[in-house]
């Protein structure tokens, strides 16, 4: 399907994919943001599942959107090259009208196997690349821009520097060079499945249906924790989907005895109605005012002043200052 609909020129394919990608990101993140962050939508029943009891400032959310927009054009370069190569017969990528009835490639079972393989191999890739960003200063210099969002909203899913966005999307080019892959399945897995799970991870809320204490999947708690606590030299939970990769390496797991998942916090009595009454939900409707986007420094992606300091231990504050600085020093 995708191969047929893509314009034949490289530039127009790239522009089209960038427009589609940005639209998917903005529409899907906006829907979740509205239901869980908009002032009149936040209820006690919802809030008691919020990992960080506080809400980010509207400026911080604006920075997430700006950062996403500043890098997304690089995320669409690998899939554009991939489509170009498949159209010119230079890659193993292929298209078929309906993959489910494509008996040459195994029909529905073939779709399931490709989907699972793409998920597992991509998850390993994303984990490995992400971990580099927390181990080596050169990589951290790019990746630290994602960690400015210590209390992320659903708009932070790909709020990365352009280099990180490019490498995150590189499997879309590399995998079809190595093995035959149906482009529609690959794009669906990245554009719908991964992005949906990315929204869940940056939701800011947890769900009783996937406890942080489950042994297999990274939950929204783990990625919240990652944003708030992981910095250069502290690669806690750099995994995306599966926990197994972080479980296999040193320093990949945050100490369980310090768990502050929402269920542990509820047990400590920290999600009471009294506590909720003190919570200030910012007026995010300013995000709909064009003047808010025209203010001084608004389009820098670093305009917000809210910082992570209050939540951190003394040791973590030292790391946090490295986060804001040039970040050129390796910290062990
Ligand atoms: Zn993140
Ligand atoms: Zn990270
Ligand atoms: Zn817990």
Automatic annotation (TrEMBL):
<keyword id="KW-1133">Transmembrane helix</keyword>
<dbReference type="GO" id="GO:0016491">
    <property type="term" value="F:oxidoreductase activity"/>
</dbReference>
<dbReference type="Pfam" id="PF04116">
    <property type="entry name" value="FA_hydroxylase"/>
</dbReference>
<dbReference type="GO" id="GO:0005506">
    <property type="term" value="F:iron ion binding"/>
</dbReference>
<keyword id="KW-0812">Transmembrane</keyword>
<protein>
    <recommendedName>
        <fullName>Fatty acid hydroxylase domain-containing protein</fullName>
    </recommendedName>
</protein>
<dbReference type="GO" id="GO:0016020">
    <property type="term" value="C:membrane"/>
</dbReference>
<dbReference type="InterPro" id="IPR050307">
    <property type="entry name" value="Sterol_Desaturase_Related"/>
</dbReference>
<feature type="domain" description="Fatty acid hydroxylase">
    <location>
        <begin position="115"/>
        <end position="248"/>
    </location>
</feature>
<keyword id="KW-0472">Membrane</keyword>
<dbReference type="GO" id="GO:0008610">
    <property type="term" value="P:lipid biosynthetic process"/>
</dbReference>
<dbReference type="InterPro" id="IPR006694">
    <property type="entry name" value="Fatty_acid_hydroxylase"/>
</dbReference>
<feature type="transmembrane region" description="Helical">
    <location>
        <begin position="14"/>
        <end position="38"/>
    </location>
</feature>
